[in-house]
Amino acid sequence: MTDLRQPTDPSPGWQLDHLREYVETEGERGHLWMGVPTLLLTTTGRRSGQARRTPLIYGEDADGRYVLVASKGGSPDHPAWYYNLDADPRVLVQIKGDVFEAVAHTAQGDERAALWQLMTKIWPAYDEYQTKTDRQIPVVVLTRVS
Fold this sequence. Notes:
globular, 4 helices, Pnp Oxidase, Chain A, Split_barrel_FMN-bd, alpha+beta, Nitroreductase family deazaflavin-dependent oxidoreductase, F420H2_quin_Rdtase, 8-stranded antiparallel sheet
């Protein structure tokens, strides 16, 4: 099994800078990005088997679960992290200094609709991203493993 606590980080650029600042300060800097909350999601690469870490905008539902949107800015393809968790839903999450294991699932039907509304209140551009693509943008729910 992949050690999710030893991830490979994104290529150099804003995501890597954001991620490093987040990790170095336990989210004191980096948790809020452009005014919205972000977490660090570590998935297992579906082809490489390596742990991959990505900073992502998140929300929290009424049940205390964490919610992500696999938008990739409205690209025709899902983001790599989504394909990874679709292949292996066991993930590692960091929110500020709290690092924990979780299991992911893709919301469907009424659950998806309600969570989409939650997430578009946090990041309204998700609605615009959906108009750019023919795919239904996945909404992902992360449930903490006790």
